[in-house]
Structures are given as C-alpha cells and as structure tokens.
Amino acid sequence: MPHLFRTLDGKLWKASQPLDLTLADGTPIAGLWGGSAQHEKLDWWLRKPGHLLAQTDVVAQVAVRDDDTGEINWGDAPSAARLFFVLESPSIGKNGESYRIAKMVTVATTPAELAYFRDTRFSLFGTFKPDGTIAVIPPLPPPPAKPPLQGELF
After folding, report:
1. Residues 135 and 129: beta-carbon distance below 8 Å
2. In this structure, are residues 37 and 106 in contact, taking their beta carbons and an 8 Å threshold?
3. pTM across the whole model
C-alpha cells in the first residue's frame, strides 16, 4: 500500500498525518490518513453511515515502502490525477476534538507494479465525475524493476 504521495506544489503527504481533501461537491474537508479501502469494496465502505468519498489535490508522485528492505520506491502519477480516500464517520479524540479517519482507495497492482513496488496494492488514480462517482485514470507504467539482491556467494 502506498505510504507517501507528493502534490504538484511539492508538498509531501504521509500516512498517519492530516490530509486536505475535497468532497465531490467541492467542499473542503480534513481527514487523518489511516489505512486503506479496496476499490473492489468501495460500495460496502460508502454504505456505512457517515462515510464519504473525498479526493486530494492533483498528485505528482506516489511511493510505496518495501516491507523487506525498507526502501521507498517512487512512481509518477498520470497527468491531472488525484487520489481518493474514504472518510469514516467522525470520531472524538482524547483531546475532545472531532476527526475523521481517511482510508486511501487502492487497487490490485499490475505485474509491472508488483515487480517495481513489491506490494500487491497501489493507489487508484482518478477525478470526480459530476455525479460524484470516480472517473478512473489508468496508472503510468512504473520504472523497470530492480534486479534482486545477490545472495552470499560463500
């Protein structure tokens, strides 16, 4: 699952941090990035009371941290693409303030994405259609996969 993304203005966004998002009607809303929601199960997520679909500003790049090596692998986003998040219903924090967990909408990786990012899930790219549904934008091909590390010879 992606752990980082960068918007066109160069701002870096990380999992577990607050996000600036926008609803389909253009209303700005904040979320706290915490986890993911599979695109294949998006209807299920959005049927839950108080859950909403929101999008980011246009993104430039998305990164996935390799669980085996800890290496961060960046991939470019398609032109004019945004990322989508499911906002859970509001919760009240220990400080008494309201917040919403934002789960990144992900899709299964292509074989090339799996080889490069070494993860089975990647970001869904798109934009809102006028009816509030997602116009999916296909991802760009990732860079070539790095060769596997050579094991010990002796």
Report:
1. yes
2. yes
3. 0.92
